Amino acid sequence: MKKQAPALLTRREAALLMRVSPGTLCNMHARGQGPAYLKTARIRGKALYRREAVLAYLESNGSKPAGKPKARRRKGATV
Question: pTM for this one?
């Protein structure tokens, strides 16, 4: 019998499922992107993710968690 994944995932587990780093997942939330998460007060404010929410996010975004990055202009560059 196959072992079921837990209903709630840590940031590291969710990032692994999404194939991004935990830091990238944290940055996505800072930009208002990424799957919905729960912020727990009991475990020092750690983010927990519902497995279904992560899978739904991946499906709705074509398995591309992050959007196209904005081009950055170097300091002193002329147009």
Answer: 0.66
CA dist 46 to 5, 39, 69, 72, 73, Å?
19, 6, 27, 31, 35
Residues 15 and 21 sit within 8 Å (Cβ to Cβ) = yes
Q: What pLDDT, in 10s, does the model give residues 32-41?
A: 999 999 888 7
Residues in the chain, total: 79
Contact 42, 75 (CB under 8 A): no
Residue given tokens 């991946």 in the structure block: 58
- Burial level of 48, CB count in 10 A (0-12/13-18/19+)? middle
Q: Going by DSSP bridges, is the β-strand pair 47-50/8-10 parallel, antiparallel, or unpaired?
A: antiparallel
